[in-house]
């Protein structure tokens, strides 16, 4: 089995990481873990996704082997999406990340608010935060 290193710019693992870390990818996979779904069901359940983005995400998931698409010869055509075994293995990992995000979203929001207040105070007082001098020195070098 080939050894990959996602930290290397040309490594295929980096490309895979880019595909699976997309927010729409994660949300589609979270729904498909429950079972087969049709396009409009996915679109209804994922608040904020456009038809174009859902189409692109599903095509990408199919291309990468995470999702299979089945087209029924009906009028109107019916298309269903299902996780493949590779998709199921990925969802196990993503479920952990989703659970973490659900548990810690409040902590992250608090940190963002604290950061924004600190930036606002520093801007109002004309001071710069820690590391600003080092950044400005590097920027001029």
Your description of this structure?
The chain has 141 residues and is mainly α. The chain has one domain (12-140): Arc Repressor Mutant, subunit A (Orthogonal Bundle), CATH 1.10.10.10. It is 63% helix and 10% strand. It has six helices and three strands, in the order H-H-E-H-H-E-E-H-H. The protein has helices at residues 12-20, 23-32, 39-45, 51-63, 85-125, 132-140, and strands spanning 37-38, 67-72, 78-83. The chain has a three-stranded antiparallel sheet. The longest helix has 41 residues, at 85-125. The radius of gyration is 21 Å and the shape is extended. The mean pLDDT is 88.
Summary keywords:
141 residues; mainly alpha; 3-stranded antiparallel β-sheet; 6 helices; extended
Q: What overall geometry do the principal axes of the alpha carbons give? A: extended
Can you tell me the number of structural domains?
1
Terminal CA distance reads 45 Å
Mean pLDDT: 88
Taken as a percent bin, the fraction of beta residues is 5-15%
- CATH class value: Mainly Alpha
Structural class: mainly alpha
Rounded Rg = 21 Å
Task: Say which CATH homologous superfamily is assigned.
Answer: Winged helix-like DNA-binding domain superfamily/Winged helix DNA-binding domain
**H and E string:** HHEHHEEHH
Low-confidence stretches: none
Quick overview:
The chain has 141 residues and is mainly α. Helix content is 63%, strand content 10%. It has one domain: Winged helix-like DNA-binding domain superfamily/Winged helix DNA-binding domain (Arc Repressor Mutant, subunit A), CATH 1.10.10.
